[in-house]
Predict the structure.
Amino acid sequence: MTSRYRARPIEETALQELRVRDDAGRDCVPCTDGEGGAPLRCCLRSSAAGERIALVSYAPLRRWAARTGADPGAYDEQGPVFIHAGGCGGPAGGGGYPFARAGVRRTARRYDARGHILGGRVLDLGEDPDGEIERALADAFAEPDVALVHLRFAEFGCFQFEVRRP
């Protein structure tokens, strides 16, 4: 599937900082992934067994606001994300949305240019997960005040990826 919208990984500058100290002020503690399957936000793929990864706290709105001059206020939340412990080169590209599997619920949170939540939508990804995400993004960006959308895993609320207005 060719997507109209681009799933954005965590930016390289942020990754370099997170690999030292995360957004909660904790030192990065890398580990070897014994099983694989961790959703990596640096390259938007699942880890393989034996890869060096780290679980860090990430505040996506805070970093976006620092670049744009926005003030998300209380919406500046942080949460756990997996990243490679060292550089990985980012996403390889390809079709579809990362981590889009049938039967897995997502939320699509809409934010305005200030970084304030405008609303959201729970996505029950069925037989066409990429299509369902694409439709949710199209609906979100049909609202003129929506500047960006964060896709999150519904069960834990973890940040999955960001999509900005095309």
Q: What stands out?
A: The first strand starts at residue 31 and ends at 32. The two ends are 18 Å apart (CA to CA). DSSP finds three helices and nine strands in the chain.
